[in-house]
């Protein structure tokens, strides 16, 4: 007989507890799907195979940052004299000997004359620019500029000293072919041979 202190459950082992069903992980599901696709496994009636996993799209590549480009510098127009310094009393390159000799000897007579006596340097500089541009525009070939020996309140000879610098500035140098003193004993007056203006004269 069984002992009274034993219950029936102690004589027979209790049925094993059902294991909790664990679902497939994403990796296992993908592996199984690939296997069934390659092995051509047919699904059971009423069942369908899981679709093949699609590869993840690569992340978009960010566009490179663009920096605003600096505006292109405007090209400077080339000057006909190509930077050759004009020296008063010296034959310039490109001018034929006959024309230079005529200018240096005073045989080429100036058609217009600008007298700078009594002008301050700043006023004289503006007058020279205006005078030469107008003369070249009008087709004048030879002009004279009288600097003198200075005026009251100025350093003696300041205009005579500054005139060569003004003539060699880019705004005036391309207008000139040659420069000579009006006479050997008169350095206070300069004669200038001008280039012909471009295009037909109006």
What summary fits the major beta sheet? 4 strands, mixed
Low-confidence stretches: 77-81
Spatial extent as radius of gyration: 51 Å
> Helical element count?
6
CATH topology of the domain at 97-194: Ribosomal Protein S8, Chain: A, domain 1
Side-by-side strand order of the widest sheet: 1-2-4-3
Determine and state the CATH class of the domain at 97-194: Alpha Beta
**Sheet/helix structural class:** alpha+beta
Mean pLDDT metric: 75
Outline, from the CA principal axes? rod-shaped
Tell me the total number of β-strands. Answer: 4
How far apart lie the N and C ends?
A: 147 Å
Pfam family, one: Smr
Domain Smr: 114-195
Region (Disordered): 46-79
Biased composition (Pro residues): 52-65
Fill in the keyword field for this structure.
202 residues; Ribosomal Protein S8, Chain: A, domain 1; 6 helices; 28% helix
Structure description:
Residues 46-79 are annotated as: Disordered. InterPro entries: Smr_dom, Smr_dom_sf. It holds the Pfam family Smr. The chain has a domain at 97-194: Ribosomal Protein S8, Chain: A, domain 1, CATH 3.30.1370. Helix 4 (121-137) crosses helix 5 (158-167). The longest helix is centred in the middle third of the chain and has 17 residues, at 121-137. It has 202 residues and is an alpha+beta fold. Helices cover 28% and strands 13% of the residues. The chain contains six helices and four strands, in the order αααβαβααββ.
